[in-house]
Amino acid sequence: MRLIAYTGKGGVGKSVISSVTGLRSAQLGYRTLVMSSDPSHTLSDVFEVPVGGDETRVNENLWVVHIDPVEEGMKHYATLMDYVVELFKARDVDETIAYELANFPGSTGAAALLKAFEYQSKGTFQVIVMDMVPSGEALRLLYMPFLISRFSRRIMRLISPAARLGKMIEPMTGIPAPTSEIIDKQVELLEMMDKVRGMLINFETTSLRLVMNPDNFSIANAKRTYMQSSLYGVNTDLAIINKLMPQEVQDPYFKKWKEIQRIYTNQVKADLAPLPVKTVPLYAEELQGMEGLKRAAQDLFGDEDPTKVYHQGQPLKLVQKENGLEMIVAAKLAKKEGLQVERIGDELIVHLKTESGNVKILTPLPAITFKYSLKGAKLINGNLHVMFGE
Ligand SMILES: Nc1ncnc2c1ncn2[C@@H]1O[C@H](COP(=O)(O)OP(=O)(O)OP(=O)(O)O)[C@@H](O)[C@H]1O
Ligand SMILES: [Mg+2]
Hints:
Blueprint: E1 2-7, H1 14-27, E2 32-36, H2 42-47, E3 56-59, E4 62-66, H3 69-90, H4 95-102, H5 107-122, E5 127-131, H6 135-165, H7 170-173, H8 180-200, E6 206-212, H9 216-232, E7 236-244, H10 255-272, E8 277-281, H11 289-301, E9 316-321, E10 324-330, E11 334-344, E12 347-354, E13 357-364, E14 373-380, E15 383-389
Parallel strand pairs: 1-5, 1-6, 2-4, 2-5, 6-7, 7-8
Antiparallel strand pairs: 3-4, 9-10, 10-15, 11-12, 12-13, 14-15
The structure holds adenosine-5'-triphosphate (ATP) and magnesium ion.
Magnesium ion binds at residues 14-15, 38, 42, 131.
């Protein structure tokens, strides 16, 4: 199975591009599901059919589903949550607060991934295209399996001594003993989280795709996502700049817009290289309905199979050193001379000379570098090594 997840800032076009991808994938004969947990039910508008919690068939090979993350989450965590609430209540914590405390961090976000994993296990679909919530959240979401297993293991430690002593200590301590059902659930969740993580970090199965518009905010957001997903071990295989003002727009009012967008597009390509970057024009009307989707599929993918893995790579690697940290960034086209690095806020700016002129690369820095200062950089075998130290 292929899991393709589109992410990006609010309104950039994640839902329509997920739908475009799903439609083309289905046309190529893959049993395809487009899945969204977007609360605004955009898929209904895009496909112009009612979409709910059960898979709706749109055509021969295409299904769409709208999952309710709270409901999905509860399927997995309810039993555990109830138990943790009982634990807190036994210590005189108010019930409402107990539920807040017992809530897994971001559990609703992780629900979409669990659902994708369920589909994978059942093997019903060959391709799942996921329309993810805006990036910041989405990344927490990718990281969720790690967080939840950690959180879960902590509860496990809380549970096991009580489980051993069982009902014996309950009257003495007033702490409710976990039932075997609770322990089973806990183990089940942990095992599943490990498998979800396995699915996410498998480069052949899962691809993250960045959607942005030619504006500073959504570009910065996409780059940050790219950096973070790389750290989490998730492969990003494609970036898409959507809603580019077409050349045929000749109105002088948009002249400056077109020029800025051209500059941004080139900059994104340079910054994200070797990650492939595709573009989609801003259409004369809102992108929706089958005809609109088919046209966009042609503009975006041409004759390609959109389910292929467009790129595999780890754009950024961090290596802990004795007295600091080394960050390794791919920079294949760079020449040794003229290399300069500077740090402005939480971004690293690299000035490089390449065959095709001077390039400036902006890379968001991972939080772990904040406690160090920038020491220098060098090029080794097409990789830029940036040193941070005390
Ligand atoms: N290339 C395009 N040309 C014209 N309209 C577009 C294009 N791409 C997207 N749109 C329109 O922009 C709007 C936002 O698109 P979409 O809902 O897919 O964004 P989103 O990233 O999923 O938003 P949200 O973050 O709210 O879920 C929709 O009305 C869609 O039809
Ligand atoms: Mg959406």
